[in-house]
Amino acid sequence: MKWILPIALALLSTSSFAYKITDYSGKCFVLDEKKAQVCSIQKGVSSGGGFIYLEFDKKEFLIEQSTTCGTSCQPYLGTTPENALLSKKYKKGPWDCYKQVQGSLNICYMISK
Fold this sequence. Notes:
By secondary structure, the chain is mostly beta strands. The protein is built from one helix and eight strands. It has an eight-stranded antiparallel β-barrel with strand order 1-2-3-4-5-6-7-8.
């Protein structure tokens, strides 16, 4: 009986995961507004995927991408995980941009150095 708890804790610790989150500052804009603003950028990564969280002008945006499907994984963009829609990533000069495939959200960001 003494070995049940240590084995359970060992299995739990190897099966759980956590995001490694890094904070950045930069500039962001929604493509329709075309006005870049200072924004807070958080990037997180784990064994199953990653996310980018953008916050500016009292708005929040979330970009999620799984890594479990190899190189064919497509990102999702939304204001919450529940309303994130399939999107396409593209570059616009130095900006990293994401546009929803069947939605109207189109956002760009650039990390300050």
